[in-house]
Amino acid sequence: MGVSREQVRHHWRTLMGETMLEPPDEEPGDRVSGPALDLVLRVGELLLASGEATERVNESMLSLAVAYELPRCEVAVTFTVISVSVHPGMGALPVTGARAIRRRNPAYWRLVALHALIQDASVGLLDLEEAHDRLRRIKRGHPPYGSPYPPWLGVVALGLIAASAGVMMGGGALVAGTAFVATVLADRTAALLGRRGIAEFFQLAVAASIGATAAVLVIAAGAPANAATIVTGGIVALLPGRPLVASIQDGITGDLVSAGARMLEVFFIVAAIVSGLGLTVYTAVRLGLAIDVKDLPVAPMTLRPVAVLAAAAVSMTFAIALAVPRRVLPAAALGGALIWAVYVLGREVGAAPLLSAAVGAVIVGLLGNALARRRHQPALPYIVPAIAPLLPGTALYRGMIQLNGGAPTQGVLTLIGGISVALALGAGVNLGGEFVRAFQRVGVGGSGRGARPAARRTRGY
Fold this sequence. Notes:
Blueprint: H1 5-15, H2 34-49, H3 54-67, E1 73-77, E2 81-86, E3 95-100, H4 108-122, H5 128-140, H6 151-168, H7 173-195, H8 200-220, H9 224-236, H10 241-252, H11 256-286, H12 305-321, H13 329-348, H14 353-374, H15 380-383, H16 393-404, H17 408-438
Antiparallel strand pairs: 1-2, 2-3
Helix pairs in contact: 2-3, 2-5, 3-4, 4-5, 6-7, 6-9, 6-12, 7-8, 7-9, 8-9, 8-11, 9-16, 10-11, 10-17, 11-16, 12-13, 13-14, 14-17, 16-17
């Protein structure tokens, strides 16, 4: 069969680059499921709003994307916004969705329920419709999901944190009762301000000021040592243990934007507490009330049953305030007693407070993460309440007394020391988690060793 002159010319022009060969017909790209994309976004939003660390939110969302076959999915998680981009391929336009986190509710029972949903979806036990229905019930708290405690118990738990911390600092029944009443009153006042639309910074400042005012009244009655113990207990109930742990975890894992935002949140919480304390102490000093640093108590370094039980009670009531599942409460109490015992033993052998707190946090973080992995649950409900007994309430109060009592340099150093202990606690529990991760094969939501590609980067260069 001969070749026509026109075919020869076309072939020649093609070889010379004057014309292009027609591309083959492209196959259509992978279909993007709208309900699957919506599920990934909503789960990520609820995880982040419930207090989960950024890395775990990212891992969980990617696990759901794989489970429901979203093609070539990219997830971006920051402190306030999450986004998911799906690339169907073969020339099809990408599909992107985003959600903003405007309200945070650190309820740890919800974290546990969400991680159970992710696990079931990852192994194929939930179809898409069932996953949406389950997520809806988790979000609304419908049975069998919901807070394991009545609302009033969360308020009482805050007062019990303060009362237990007061006993741990060496106070008696009078100190515990006064700290309980002052903390509950401060919390209800802050809640009232919240309903009026007042910013959370001022809510915390007012709450800290009410606790300090109770101490000032006790000083005026002639019991300065009891006063300091009371205000210390009240401060511990306000300190930001949850965002502190999450911020350091984000920084360690390379999510620097979220880490910076969370650390700024911690800074503003501490600044609000210090502002409330400082205003009350300054007013009391100006009115002629004798407030002396010598009257401030030093936490008794003892392993007597009363102190150990008080430390356990601080952690357990802190866990109730965070709405952890009831099954976690014994572990939280044991963690509080353990971190207090390690801290006391470290001080007895001559270790600095910073080092003693860090060692205790590493041990608690190691055991808490191991137990959480064994139960196939997130680690935060196990490790955050455990560090509560060592949160630096006394250091903040002492620093404000020194700042307003003619020793500003010493006051600044005391505040820096207290903040350093808090950072050591957050870093320590995360280091314990890294030890567990180093020897695990796979974790919840695909969090095994192979799920952290950023760990293989070039050491910061």
